[in-house]
Give the backbone structure.
Amino acid sequence: MKRVSVACAIALQPLIVQSGELTFRPVLDVSAVTYETKHPDTDEKSDNNALMLEPVLATTYKSQLLNAALRIKNTTVKQSENSAELDKEFTDVNFNSKMGFWDRRLLFTAQSNRIHRAQLGIDSGISDPILNAEELSTVQTNNASMSFSPQRPAYLGMSFFARAGESRTRSNPSAQNQFADIDSDSYSGGASIFQGQEITRMFWNINANYEKTKRDAQPDVISRSVSAKIGVGILSDLHLIAVGSDYNNEGLRGGLQQENISSKSYGAGLEWRRASGSFLGVTYNKFKHEGKETNYVGFDLNWALSPRSSVQASYDKRFFGDNYNFSLNHNSRSWRTRVGYEKGFTSYSQLQLVPGAPIVLVCPQGSLDFSQCFMPDSPNYEPDVDETQISIPTFENELTDEIIIRESAFINLGYDKRKLSMYFNYSYSNLEYLETMRAQRTRAAQLTLTYKLGAKTKLIAHGEYSRNDTLQGTFYDEEVVSYKLALDRALSKKADLSLSLRYLDRDTDQANRALEDTRLSLKYSYKF
């Protein structure tokens, strides 16, 4: 496969002929850090001081045809003790572009990201350029996509998409690598056919999707799916409907006894549809899987409770068992509320192509500092090119390209009024690794409070909790708690100063991994 990153260069070609606004935003962050680390298992304690330099260059280009953003960040750490071993340098790159034609009916996107992160999701708050930097892995992802969506077709509508991407990870040779590095290419595509706005007594929605993941250390995985729903009006808003789905997956090996997993489901029922697009449908279905047939009652709900509230819920059966989905969204002037549950079949590489939904937080490109993020009005908010979307679960997956069944639930609350803003998230996930017969349960919570003491000063309190429990297979249980208090002061339009204190505690049943870390940081930021 040719490197998908070539698409990034192609996307920039319109710069030659299309005028637009080009901006550069250089920033220099300088941090002085003093920290103390304790290891309860061995009673070891170490004190150290570090100087961290983080020059950042952010560039954006915006025109009617093309929007693009590039962010390059270099991190250099110099420590006063054991400098030969602890001094580190990293460079992260984030590129994002969108190019639209025909009133954005035809859309091309290209992304390229190079980041450094912990191999295990639960270590994402522990391993950083200062603490346990040797455990950071280099992650390179390149993706490109093309999509077409018609605008209000009269009688027949058709949309389609195609995506391609690659994922590469390289772990530090000195790290205790739990898994083989990822070296995979992913492809996906799909098409939908639906009725136009002039057809009112009948509707249809037929979808076909294809996904392929080529893995270097494991067999390729191919997934195909077809689903359809067709309805005919019989009484006012009441419709007679027929539904069906066919899922097929090839190439699954390892702990599974079979390479192919497939299922079929079809049925009929009634659906109540409103002109606003809200509907509630109930169907009686026959389900076929592994040569067995069962019957079940399924439902599909999508309802606007008010102009500011909506609920979506559904139930059916698939090859991995019962498939429930639920989402509740509510917005007011000050509050944002998201509650959801979903279950899906995916891999790390496929998640890079389609991060997931709904979007819960939108942050500046390349940043995961919750104090700089906001909750959008809609879970379908489309981030700008210089923004990063964070979807649920926020808990990061392991850096392994195994096929997983991911079951997750979340509660998300946001408040922003006058001087006080608040963000809270709790997520619960069950991860089943099909090829190594492992299962884990993860729970994570984040709370951020920001209070404006004045026009130039704000106080930020942040807390995080995460826990990983092994349900099946050989692994270890781990719990991480951290607290951070920061005082930010704007010295001028270009200069900011931040003083922060952080405490982190990791408790685990694996020898020599428990630790406590206390860190005092003074950060000066200058925008050129």
Confidence is low (pLDDT under 50) at residues 4-8.
